[in-house]
Structure formats: structure tokens, C-alpha cells
Amino acid sequence: MRAAMVVHPASGLGRAGRVAGTVAAKLRTVVDDLVTVAAGTVEESQRLMRAAPDLDLLVVVGGDGSAHQGVQFCADTGTALAIVPAGTGNDLARTLTGAPRDPLDAADALVTAIRDGRSSMIDLGRVENGPWFAGVLCAGFDSSVNERANRMRWPSGPRRYDLAILAELARLRHGRLTVEDDNGRRELDATQIAVGNIPYYGGGIPVCPTADPADGLFDVTLVRRATRFDLVRMLPGLRTGNHVDSPLVDTSRTRRIRIGEANGWVAYADGERLGPLPVEVTCIPNALKVVGQAT
Q: Could you give the CA distance from residue 293 to residue 295 in angstroms, rounded to a whole number?
């Protein structure tokens, strides 16, 4: 087996860099050839991965941003992706392997999965004229929270996202949203929309709680026009997925969706900024091979 391990040393406040050597040693017990790559920036990671030889397996040591770059490399190629969660959110790893664990314990589980030949195929989202994404695409209030959270340096982990939510409540904005999907076309005043290939974003928030990355469909969670008080009442349910029971929340499932809006909203996917709406995305079944997916 030919494998590469890509590490973003700064992920998880330096945790990825601290565990990288030990993870590599563990992997060498089950792969024939391992190339290790340390990248300080996304651009450097992309350049180094493009120069990599044909691979059977790419192991990413880092968080969701690192995993997102791994998805771009492996999507629709047959190269398997594995994640050793060492970042802040670890939402894709949470979906594929259960609750986040110590990265070295996760590496041990990965070694066992490789030795046993355990792998699965999952769906991916594809942005028209843009990147692949494995997790959640969002726009509106939640993308504003993403922008603020990405600018924050404290605190680490899910609490950063919680504080960003509170800060954005103070400047809440709505938008006139046009949604076209398998269920038809509608136009409405909205606060946010999330298109999920997996349930989680923001460090474990199940924004699309029933999303399944192997069913060929996106789950869509749309919050219609809501006041600050409405959103505050929803906040306790965000961590449990009960926010979808609110009368202001619409849920649906679709293979394709186009989101158009004229009030300056931006879209994020996997926590990465895509840019202003409109955006159109399609769910591509069985687009990514992953190692160690929980069954």
C-alpha cells in the first residue's frame, strides 16, 4: 500500500504537529510506503499533494480545514481518505468514526482498520464550478458566525463557535432567499440555510441531525425570518438537534439545490469560504472512499 500523511502542524493549537511523528510510526507498521508532508498553509498543502505520486491512501492529521483539502485530492479518484482528528471542530471525523477521541487513540483505530481492510464509500457535495465538500454548506446567520469564528483566536474548540453565535445575534440580518431544489422553487425571507451531507458543523452542532453521507441526498435545514429572541430560544436545541422542531424551521431532502439571494450573503462549505451567493450544489453518490468509517 502506497500512502501519504499530510499534517498541518498548527491545527488544534499545534496538537497536529505534536502527534505527527508518533502517528507516522504507527502507520508504517501497516503500509508499505509512507510519504509524510508538513504544510503550513492551504496553498502549500495543495501544491505538495498535487506533486504526490499515485496513492492508495491519504491520511490527514488535522481538523476540518485539513480534511477539506484531503477531500479535494481524493474525490472521485479511488484514493482512500483517512482522518486523524487533531483540529478544533473535527466534524467530518466525528461523523465517520464517532465522538472525537485522542488523536493517538484514533491512529491506533486507523491502523486496525487498515490491517482489517475496512473501508466505505460516502457521498460528497460538488459546488458548480467550485470545490467538493464532505460536510455542510451554509449561508446567512451561520455563515456570518463562521466568518467571525474564523477571525477569533480565543477560545479554542466549540466555545469559540458559541461566542461567535452570541456576537452575531447583536447584528442579526435577514435576506430574501430563493431556493430551487428537487421539491420545486420558492422565495421567502430567511435567516439562514444549511445543506448537510453530514449532520455536524461548528464543532459538533447537529444542524442537519438526520443527514446521512451515504444516502445520495442532502438534508436541508432552513430557518425562516426569525427575531433575536426566536434564535435565542432555539440555541439550547442546537446541541441536541431539537432546533428542527421549531415552527420557524423547515427541513427537506434533495439531490440538487440552488440558493440565490440579493442581500450580500456569503456561502461556506466545510468551514471554508466560497463567496457570495448564488451557489448551486449537487450530491454525488459514492464519490469518496474512506477508511475506518463506523458501521
A: 6
DSSP 253-267: EESEEEEEESS--EE
Q: pLDDT tens across 176-198, in order?
A: 999 999 999 999 999 999 999 99
Pick from 288, 219, 222, 217: which is nearest to 250 by CA?
222
Integer Cα distance of 174 and 190 in angstroms: 6
Confidence of residue 295 (pLDDT cuts 50, 70, 90): very low
**C-alpha distances in Å from residue 165, one per residue of 137, 156, 160, 161, 223:** 17, 14, 9, 6, 15
- pLDDT one-digit tens code per residue, 82-95: 999 887 778 998 88
Angle at 221 between CA 230 and CA 101, to 5 degrees: 100
Instruction: Read off the pTM.
Output: 0.89
CA 138, 139, 141, 144 torsion: positive or negative? positive
User: At a CB cut-off of 8 Å and minimum separation 6, what does 109 contact?
Assistant: 97, 101, 292
75 and 288 Cβ atoms separated by less than 8 Å: yes
